[in-house]
Specification:
By secondary structure, this protein is α+β, with helices and mostly antiparallel strands. The chain is built from two helices and twelve strands. A hairpin with a 6-residue loop joins strand 6 and strand 7. Bound molecules: FE2/S2 (inorganic) cluster. FE2/S2 (inorganic) cluster binds next to loops.
């Protein structure tokens, strides 16, 4: 990865020593420099807790909504077990988005070949894989379970290369 230009970084460093009331805006390059953007993603957004919504958006078991964060398609769901999770919205089979928008469901069914997932992200069934000897893997995002704070905001943390964790291997049913 390229580093942000030294001149830009030195300007930003100078801002740190200024009275906050005298800083009206960042230099224009701070909004357009790709290297600085990438640095921000890695240094802040992939390391810190991110607010992804409010618990009131999904008050009932089975409620869910989709959200895109850091180029990842995610599904925030109030599971049938009562736990709120952020899951990858990408099917483990051929990487189709499993659902869109928001709603309520007992399980998620991928529209492509009908692989079906529980609301905790585990694979429930792969109907057209009956008889296959190939084990397949049920996966669940994210690197950490979301938390709900005292204001009922939903927080989650994403980390590059660890956002998708394989949970268990199961056989075709
Ligand atoms: S891509 Fe989802 S079932 Fe095939």
């Amino acid at each position: 990865m390229d580093s942000p230009p030294n001149e830009l970084m030195s300007t930003l460093s100078e801002y740190l020593s200024l009275d906050p009331l005298s800083c009206y805006s960042l230099p224009p390059e701070a909004y357009t420099d790709l290297a600085l953007y990438t640095l921000e993603l890695d240094a802040i957004f992939r390391k810190e807790w991110l607010c992804v919504g409010r618990a009131e958006y999904i008050p009932t078991r089975g409620d869910y909504y989709c959200i895109d964060i850091l180029d990842e398609s995610l599904l925030v769901v109030h599971g049938q077990d009562g736990v709120i999770r952020a899951l990858s919205n990408i099917c483990r089979h051929r990487f189709m988005p499993v659902v869109q928008g928001s709603g309520n469901t007992k399980r998620f069914v991928c529209p492509y070949h009908a692989w079906t997932y529980e609301t905790d992200g585990s694979l429930y069934a792969a109907p057209f894989m009956k008889g296959s000897s190939v084990p397949f893997v049920a996966c669940q995002a994210t690197g950490s379970k979301p938390g709900v704070d005292f204001c009922l905001l939903i927080w989650m943390m994403m980390r590059r290369h660890s956002s998708i964790k394989c949970r268990q291997q199961i056989s075709a049913s």
